[in-house]
Amino acid sequence: MGLEQEIEALLEVERFEPPQAFREKALWSDPSIYEEAAADPEAWWTAQAKELLDWETEPSQGLDDSNPPFYKWFEDGRLNASANCLDRHVEAGNGERVAYHWRGEEGEERDVTYADLHRDVQRFANALRDQGVEKGDVVGIYLPMIPEVVVAMLACARIGAPHNVVFGGFSAESVRERMEFSEAKALVTVDGARRKGKTAPIKPAVDEHLGDLGSLETIVVVRHTGIDCPMTDGRDVFYDEILAAADPECPAEPMEAEHPLFILYTSGSTAKPKGILHTTGGYLTGVTATHRYVFDLKPESDVYWCAADVGWVTGHSYIVYGPLANGATSVMWEGAPDYPHQGIWWELIERYKATILYAAPTAIRTFIKWGAEIPAKFDLSSLRLLGSVGEPINPKAWLWYHKVIGAERCPIVDTWWQTETGAIMITPLPGITTTKPGSATTPFPGVEAEVVDESEGEPIDEGQGLLVLERPWPSMLRGLFKEDERFVETYFSRFGSERYLVGDAARRDGDGYYWVIGRIDDVANVSGHRLSTAEVESAIVAHPAVAEAAVIGQSDEDTGQAICAFVTLRGGTEPSDELVEGIRAEVAKRIGKFARPKRIVWADDLPKTRSGKIMRRLLRDIAEGRALGDVTTLRDPDVMAELEAKIAEEQDED
Ligand code: WT7
Fold it and tell me: Residue 137: CB partners within 8 Å, gap ≥ 6?
């Protein structure tokens, strides 16, 4: 039988039990953990917080729900996140343990130990203070996948300066917006970034877009590529120079459990990104517990690799805080999955004997396309557990992952969560849960989810509805930075302040398993990256030839969803290939390359309601080739016929 047929045959197998060999050694293998947590979730989480973390002052209480939805956890506890990630491991004699096997694009290797991080974080924390950064000041971080990004994050945590990391794939213009909204006082960036053998100058773009930002007093530049880089006197400093000049000792300052740890901007329904705010004690409890038990992490023997970017929440929680708090050894890869060759991931797994891989379905689908013969060339026998995150994983991709990468030996944990939830919420426990390909299975202990109907919010036992989380959990967002009203409106207005509205549609099956379907708002999920359609629209209309644009997320074989833009040009402008490129370049400049539309449909007019609202629902129908939904509220029903003709024309050309 060929691989294709074997996977077809596996599609018939609907359930996968945890392998006996795995279950025997798993940290958790007794399902009673669910009942234990459900009996008193608050007490259970408080016990986790005390067991998994080092507190300067242990909290005397768990949840404070006196002012919903502004919940607090472990309020009178005091701790420092960087001390939990570093000092306690060094003090326990594990300073020489590798925290990151870093691998650069050109094959460079750096093993960074816990002692190395501890040394650099103390110095950088002092260096930031020398630059005038104080507790409560926001520090922006715009760096590629290099160990310095971890140093910068933990140095901020050490002195109580919330960090605001912006993914390196965002354009400098997006960085500016995020720095402006968060009133960042300092920014840590890099001379240039490497991407597939090329070097992109970063600092000049930062200067161009952020040079006049009033709040920004300091720009710290990491010399990574060594390219020439302009420096402004009195504002710009080199990372290595201020590190060398700083005092080597910086005792970790205990923070209140509710002290802000970071802000991370993510897309919402409007063009303005939301500043998701996470605090210290609850967040750290959530990521440490889930990282340990979802990945069954044994810090002495595992080599763990989360192949995300630190610029997204997956990186914050499962490259930095969770793994370091647990004393894990991780792999950190600077580059892309196809440079210097399409087998680089598998080469790294063989090289570092990785035991756990956590990746996105979009990457898995790409590997499927490249062919099973590529991973077959490498020794992947060290792997014992596989994870998936970012979007629903289709059963075929799940089975390929299971068979080709996991050799049918490794449980797969499909983890559902969000920037807002801070930590994994719905997931298998690998030593306990029987998995079903495509389902994230059931909530983590101490988490309660529900599928409810759209209008009344009544629980639906079996079938599709809106996904909600029923009670506060420690790592939940504490708000949107400086936007309390929007926070309440977005998550806690539809069903009240005691129920968190996720923004995803989901279905629950007869076994109580959750199947997440996708977003219900105007948010597209491209390769596991969340993008607001409104944000892309406003970038497109910035192009001088564009009169109006409507953007939707369209199903895509490779990236889950892809950006599809319906564009109306200004009078007298004719569609052309140059215009397509011009529009894509505009989006790359304003948001980032990853947000560029894959498909542009020229539309003379867009479907609008009588009040002028664009009906994206109809555009989604038309792009997916579905029968049109209700068109009776359209101002001009002819618009749809014209668009349908356009799409038919487009297909003829293919
Ligand atoms: C949205 C959150 C979680 C970190 C990366 C994305 C979708 C995420 C899954 C999954 C189905 C998933 C949801 C969610 N999503 N994981 N395992 N199965 N859907 O974080 O950018 O905040 O996006 O990603 O739609 O709401 P994010």
Answer: 161, 162, 185, 186
519 Cα nearest atom in ligand 1: 25
Contacts for 303 with CB less than 8 Å, ≥ 6 apart: 101, 329, 330, 331, 352, 353, 354, 355, 356, 382
Q: Model's pTM, two decimal places?
A: 0.95
Name the closest-CA residue to atom 2, ligand 1: 418
Tell whether the torsion through CA atoms of 184, 185, 186 and 192 is positive or negative: positive
| 224 vs 214: CA distance, rounded Å | 27
For ligand 1, the distance from its centroid to the CA atom of residue 348, given in whole angstroms, is: 26
pLDDT per position as a tens digit, 267-321: 988 889 999 999 999 999 999 999 999 999 999 999 999 999 999 999 999 999 9
Question: Cβ(504) to ligand 1 under 6 A?
Answer: yes
pLDDT at 250 over 70: yes
Q: List, edge to edge, every strand of the sheet that includes 356-359.
A: 109-113, 98-103, 329-333, 303-306, 356-359, 385-389, 412-415
Whether ligand 1 lies within 6 angstroms of the CB of 179 is answered as no
Q: Which of 516, 520, 555, 594 to mutate to test the pocket of ligand 1 (most atoms within 8 A of CB)?
A: 516
Question: Residue 501: CB partners within 8 Å, gap ≥ 6?
Answer: 466, 468, 490, 491, 492, 494, 495
Whether residue 519 has its Cβ less than 6 Å from ligand 1: yes
Cα-to-centroid distance, 244 and ligand 1 (Å): 40
Atom of ligand 1 nearest to the CA of 426: 17
Domains by residue range for the chain, with CATH: 113-253 (3.40.50.980), 449-519 (2.30.38.10), 523-653 (3.30.300.30)
Instruction: In whole angstroms, give the CA distance from residue 325 to residue 49.
Output: 12
Give CA 66 to chain center in angstroms.
Answer: 30
> Is the minimum distance from the CB of 313 to ligand 1 under 6 angstroms?
yes
Residue 378 tokens read as 């490498």
Distance CA 549, CA 569 (A): 9
The closest-lying atom of ligand 1 relative to the alpha carbon of residue 523 is 25
Q: Quick one: tokens of 623?
A: 């792009």
Ligand 1 pocket, residue 317 CB under 6 Å: no
Residue linked to tokens 């047929």: 5
pLDDT tens-digit series, residues 387-425:
999 999 999 999 999 999 999 999 999 999 999 999 999
Distance 104 CA to ligand 1 centre (A): 28
Give distance in angstroms: CA of 513 to centre of ligand 1. Answer: 17
Place of tokens 């609907």: 14
Q: Calculate ∠ Cα 87-89-94, nearest 5°.
A: 130
* Calpha distance 151→153 (Å, rounded): 6
Under 8 Å between Cβ of 314 and 389: yes
- Other beta carbons within 10 angstroms of residue 347's beta carbon come to 18
389 lines ligand 1 (CB under 6 A): yes
Exposed e or buried b per residue across 361-384, where buried means at least 16 C-beta atoms within 10 angstroms of its C-beta: bbbbbbbbeeebebbeebebeebb
Cα separation, 236 vs 232, in Å, equals: 5
Query: What contacts 576, CB < 8 A, 6 or more positions away?
Result: none
